[in-house]
């Protein structure tokens, strides 16, 4: 029959286990934030790949004439451009407002979907050659601003967690503000 520890020895073991769990939790948070800080680079890489396919007029898609026959006529290029300018303006404003408010939002990949849609509509409307660089420049701008915001947010979290870790190792408990 095993005997349970009682008294100061058990309390010290429990405190050490609790401290180790807190330490591992903080280290896991740091690793997660380090991975999240790279999401902007991954999104930018995916956008560059998408842009390369758009540059080559989407070789894997059927011809615009086939798509028009199946889906109907696309919006006119001026209508697409109005939607594109509206999207670009509000995407940048939204990203900057999130940056100023320090809102934790990591949804950068939705921008790639919107930009792909503009490439697609311009392609089907036969206006991709005239509007490729506009979509490309706006996409780079949006993704760089959003990637920078996410990276800074993650770096602040990493610094905060490293301070928490140092305090935990020094005192054996987390800072009071938590």
Structural overview:
With 178 residues, the protein is an all-alpha fold. It has helices at residues 8-36, 39-55, 64-71, 77-101, 109-125, 128-171. It has one domain (10-171). The longest helix has 44 residues, at 128-171. The protein starts with 7 loop residues before the first helix and ends in a 7-residue tail after the last helix. The relative contact order is 0.16. The model has no long low-confidence stretch (mean pLDDT 89).
How many helix segments?
Answer: 6
**Global mean pLDDT:** 89
* Approximate shape: elongated
User: Main sheet, how many strands, which sense, barrel?
Assistant: none
Helix fraction bin: over 70%
What is the gist of this entry?
The chain is mostly helical.
Give the helices and strands, then pairings:
Blueprint: H1 8-36, H2 39-55, H3 64-71, H4 77-101, H5 109-125, H6 128-171
Helix pairs in contact: 1-6, 2-5, 2-6, 4-5, 4-6, 5-6
What tags apply to this protein structure?
mainly alpha; 79% helix
